[in-house]
Amino acid sequence: MTEYRAFKVELTDNIAHVQINRPEKLNAMNGDFWKEIIDIFQWIDDTDAVRVVVLSAAGQHFSAGIDLALLAQLAGQMGKDVGRNARLLRRTILGLQASFNAVDNCRKPVLAAIQGYCLGGAIDLVSACDMRYCSADAQFSIKEIDMGMAADVGTLQRLPRIIGDGVMREMAYTGRHVLAHEAQRIGLVNQMFDDQAALREGVFALAAQIAQKSPIAVSGTKEMLNYMRDHRIDDGLEYIATWNAAMLQSEDLRVAMAAHMSKQKPTFAD
After folding, report:
1. Where is this protein found (predicted)?
2. Is 48 a catalytic residue?
3. Catalytic one among 144, 163, 202, 216?
4. What is the pLDDT of residue 134?
5. Is 114 helix (H, G, I), strand (E, B) or coil?
6. Three-state SS at 58
7. Is 81 assigned a catalytic role?
């Protein structure tokens, strides 16, 4: 397993555990973070032994968002020419977006386990995950508005598809903190757990359930769900017909049906 500076990555029983590992900095997203997350999720995508991902963070907080030192470094590169500054900023923003696109585009389901602070860029990150779960101490905030800017790495594009429009706008315009109970009520998280230990146990139990399913069926399901975010129903029906024309020939279908008929637990190849 590759060693990373901003993450710790483990693979056990077909579950990849990707842990942000900068607890002394509240898991703020530094330069290493933005580069390494692309490499990690490319490895996950390419590794058939990985069937599902748990994304968590070390320490008391999930993440305080983008590292301010990274922003200061970017500011130091700015000159007097408006056009060149705009070119630099646009290139930088698109690069940061690519980091979370790697999570969103991953073929494997990604479950976020969130404790403590989930602020600013951390909202962008968890919005790119398939499901979100939190402990009772979790706090969520779209903090970019308090920094005098609009969130630009995915929150404003992905979160409206997760929670209601009115609540989304309220969070984005005010930057207020949303606590765990409210986060569950508005659908920002699927479930709230009492503490971090229960959060970890619960999320890994869910990941284990997914890992036991046919990886062909799971990846196909995610592909269709993501496709339907940007397409009409008839487009989606056409796509799934073409997709399953190939995938229904998988051995997994025979294994699943045989297990169902014999009331036994199926075992699928990677």
Report:
1. Peroxisome
2. no
3. 144
4. 98
5. strand
6. coil
7. no
Backbone CA torsion sign across 62, 65, 69, 70? positive
Task: Verify whether residue 182 is a known catalytic residue.
Answer: no
Please list the rounded mean pLDDT of every run of 10 residues in the chain (270 residues).
93 98 97 97 97 98 94 88 93 95 97 98 98 98 94 95 96 97 98 98 98 96 94 93 89 89 90
Dist CA 159 CA 127 (whole Å) = 6
Q: Which residue has the tokens 């971090």?
A: 196
Give catalytic status of residue 152 as yes or no: yes
Strand segments (E) across the chain = 7-12, 15-20, 52-57, 110-114, 117-119, 131-135, 139-141, 178-179, 191-193
For residue 125, the surrounding DSSP H or E stretch is helix 121-127
Q: Is 121 a catalytic residue?
A: yes
Euclidean distance between CA atoms 119 and 139, whole angstroms:
8
13: helix, coil or strand? coil
Instruction: Give residue 75's pLDDT.
Output: 86
Q: Specify the length of the chain in residues.
A: 270
